[in-house]
């Protein structure tokens, strides 16, 4: 799934509309300290449905709206859109581009949109979960996560690799299946006991 474009307005330091185009391959964003590089990854996390403002280095929702500077007045709205290339139809929508948008107002009201049509957060989670961009996905890895991975025990690190490789969901399904087998086994024992009693 190719992320084609990123657009943000009013999000943290982006007082003017920012548009970034991503081509195929690797894109690196460089800039001086404090110029807003991490704000881009915060914005991506946010539009993908992050609900915990602390994970976006803020304390309250207002912290993600442009707070003003010596020359600019604060803004009352923050909006971020991710534009995905959907020419392979991985997202089951009849559009070659899918635009996911999130907007929040200083009043606290917020809106989610898919291709400019209002939707629920759940619709975004469901759609993104299907293409591997769900809430727990490894699509965005923060600096603190890198430290955590480097400092973790090999057993815990293995879990991260399994998660990234998509094995975790199968392990969960295996656990569920084994539990059902266990339940069925107990039911069969019970049936056998009852049959012995009445037979
Ligand atoms: P570094 O290289 O040091 O990690 P960076 O390029 O990743 O820096 P960011 O952390 O993305 O920089 O940006 C920090 C800047 O964003 C700070 O100057 C901060 O004042 C500004 N900023 C954060 N939130 C807001 C906000 N709500 N309104 C205005 N500016 C904000």
Structural account:
The protein is of the alpha+beta class and 199 residues long. It has a domain at 2-135: 3-Layer(aba) Sandwich (Rossmann fold). The protein has helices at residues 37-47, 121-130, 143-151, 154-164, 168-198; strands at 2-9, 18-21, 77-85, 97-105, 110-114, 117-119. A hairpin with a 4-residue loop joins strand 4 (97-105) and strand 5 (110-114). The radius of gyration is 23 Å and the shape is elongated. The model has no long low-confidence stretch (mean pLDDT 92). Bound molecules: adenosine-5'-triphosphate. Adenosine-5'-triphosphate (ATP) is lined by residues 12-13, 31, 33-39, 63, 65-67.
Query: Average pLDDT value?
Result: 92
The number of distinct helices, counting runs of at least 4 residues, comes to 5
Q: Structural class of the helices, strands and pairings?
A: alpha+beta
Order of helices and strands: EEHEEEEHHHH
Total number of β-strand segments?
Answer: 6
Are any ligands bound, and if so which? adenosine-5'-triphosphate
**First and last CA, distance:** 62 Å
Return the CATH topology of one domain: Rossmann fold
Approximate helicity band:
25-40%
CATH architecture of one domain: 3-Layer(aba) Sandwich
CATH homologous superfamily label of one domain? P-loop containing nucleotide triphosphate hydrolases
Q: Specify the oligomeric state.
A: single chain
Query: Can you tell me the residue ranges where pLDDT is under 50 for at least 5 consecutive residues?
Result: none
């Amino acid at each position: 799934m190719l992320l084609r474009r990123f657009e943000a307005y009013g999000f943290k330091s982006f007082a003017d509309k920012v548009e970034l185009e991503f081509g195929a391959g690797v894109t690196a964003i460089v800039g001086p300290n404090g110029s807003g590089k991490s704000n881009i990854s915060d914005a991506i996390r946010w539009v993908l449905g992050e609900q915990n403002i602390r994970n976006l280095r803020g304390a309250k929702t207002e912290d993600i709206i442009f707070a003003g500077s010596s020359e600019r007045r604060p803004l009352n709205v923050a909006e971020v859109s991710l534009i995905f290339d959907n020419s392979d139809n991985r997202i089951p929508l009849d559009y070659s581009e899918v635009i996911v948008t999130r907007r929040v107002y200083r009043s606290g009201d917020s809106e989610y949109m898919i291709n400019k049509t209002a939707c629920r957060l759940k619709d975004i989670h469901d759609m993104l979960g299907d293409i591997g961009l769900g809430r727990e996905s490894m699509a965005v890895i923060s600096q603190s996560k890198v430290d955590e991975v480097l400092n973790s025990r090999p057993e815990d690190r293995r879990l991260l690799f399994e998660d990234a490789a998509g094995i975790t969901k199968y392990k969960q399904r295996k656990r569920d299946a084994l539990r059902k087998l266990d339940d069925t086994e107990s039911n069969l024992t019970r049936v056998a006991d009852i049959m012995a009693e009445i037979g």
